[in-house]
Specification:
- The complex is a heterodimer.
- Chain A is α/β, with parallel strands linked by helices.
- Chain A has 12 helices and 14 strands.
- In chain A, helix 3 (98-108) crosses helix 4 and helix 8 packs across helix 11 (303-311).
- The two termini of chain A are 35 Å apart.
- Chain B is mostly helical.
- Chain B has helices spanning 2-18, 21-47, 52-73, 76-84, 87-93, 98-127, 134-162, 167-181, 196-204, 206-219, 224-250.
- In chain B, helix 7 runs parallel beside helix 11 (224-250).
- The longest helix of chain B is centred in the middle third of the chain and has 30 residues, at 98-127.
- Classes of the chains: A alpha/beta, B mainly alpha.
- The A-B interface holds A 55-59, 77, 80-81, 83, 85, 87, 89-96, 100, 104-105, 107-110, 152 and B 4, 7, 11, 14-15, 18-19, 81-82, 85-87, 89-96, 252-253.
Amino acid sequence: MITARGLERRFRRKGRTGGEVHAVKGVDLDVDAGELVGFLGPNGAGKTTTLRMLTTLLKPTAGTATVGGRDLLADPVGVRERIGYVAQGGGTSPETKVADELELQGRLYRMSKADAIARGAELAEQLDLTGLDQRLTRTLSGGQRRRLDIALGLIHSPGLVFLDEPSTGLDPQSRANLWEHIRRLRAEQGVTVFLTTHYLDEADSLSDRLIVIDDGRIVAEGTPDALKARVSGDRVEVGVDPEQGADAAEIAGRLAGAHELSVADGEVRFRVPRGDVALPELLRALDAKSIPMRSVQVHRPTLDDVFLTLTGRSLREAEEGTRAA
Amino acid sequence: MLRDTWLIFRRDMKAALRNPTWIMIGIMQPLLYLFLFGPLMVKAMQAQGLSEVDGWMLLTPALIAQLALFGSSFVGFGLLADYRSGVVERFRVTPVSRGALLLGKVLASALQAVVQAILIILLAYLVFDLDAPVGGVLLSLVIVFLLAVSLASCSYALALTLKSEETFPALLNAVLIPLLLLSGILLPITAGVAPKWLYTISQINPFRHVVDVERSSFRGDFTMDALFTGSVVVLVMAVVSVWWGTRTFQKENA
């Protein structure tokens, strides 16, 4: 569905200092039909710029791509006809009725009036928007408006849809509901979905496959589980009396496969391949030395850990870095 | 292209009709001039030996030119709102023709300007001593339409280039006030009355010629001499502006 090779984008910086921003530095992408792919990275990593290139909104400075079977550079109109795009901030005008937006959108995709109305009604039903067709879009709730944005992106039944940060700004319940809709879209209609997100839980729970971008380059790709497996093991945190911290750390260090050991203020941290297996052994060893344990936690690796392993920075640090730059 | 233009035109017209208050607010300014400035100007003209009808015949066509000048120049604000809400980008991802995105909006703005002009002419006719031939009024409406097409195209192009709700009106006001003063809308700038240098500058101002041709057509003066310059000016303005607007809409990242 998407094949991109060496996509690059530079922006000229405004102002007297001039200079260039190299937002995307050569991106290769492959997305198969029917996949639900998450494009994960911190804010400012080049997600939206890549997406805007793939959706014909921005011309690449270098590189080639075919999207929906059409060449991005030679046939942008062909690409536009075959894709749906839901922008980060949505795209509804506040003073327009829901039904009018849907009808116009369909007709801009060359559908007949009757088809556009029928398809609009069908999507409204699928996306829980029934009964809202005569409402002005500004009167909709955040979740409803987001679902309307998605309906607008799907009006012409595209085989491929791009969702830019679909759940940003939604309350937890609306988010869960939106995820359900996105999953159903793929399951029931076989739509290929390419979504960007900087939420780890979203990328984790929604995508079949993740592509991680940092600083304009793809740094990893794979299933969420495969990516997590790259992080070596579970993180264990054991709390003991501060005076016994060093002793406890020594005991923990003797566990099979323990590494990344650190101790501070009676907080002993380390990684082991299987936290659940290591824990009973640790308990016994501490007990034998009469060191009481105050607390214990075992963390499965998260995508944040993955990001940290891949780039040496956590997602949050990466975002603060781009903001400071 | 034609179909796309119609779709965008209809969208904008629907929005205007849903909120007709804006059309009324748009004609408030020329209306105030008509009622609060008109009687004064007519009296002043009488002192120069013109009849009352002559005075209204000078003011009314100038006011409808002013209406197009100011009303259509600010339509870019609507586009900035659409830009901020993501509507412009949503349209740009569809296969819709970029030229149609501009033309549909421009035609909707121009039609609204013509409707406002008709309202002003009707009021001047009913309340004051206006006596213009039907043919002349129709011609003046065609000119208002072309003028509105030019200014709306420029306004949309400028709004999309600046993309700023602050610089856009500041720049417009800086340009529009001298254009207004040098067009003789409020007081005809004639060789006899105006200082020579002012008269010369006003000749460079394209709007001056548009105002002149509006007045000629109201008088029913359809001679080549009276209509030629103004008509050519307004036609050239319309063509150049639409070309500029279309180019801006076609540019990537606009």
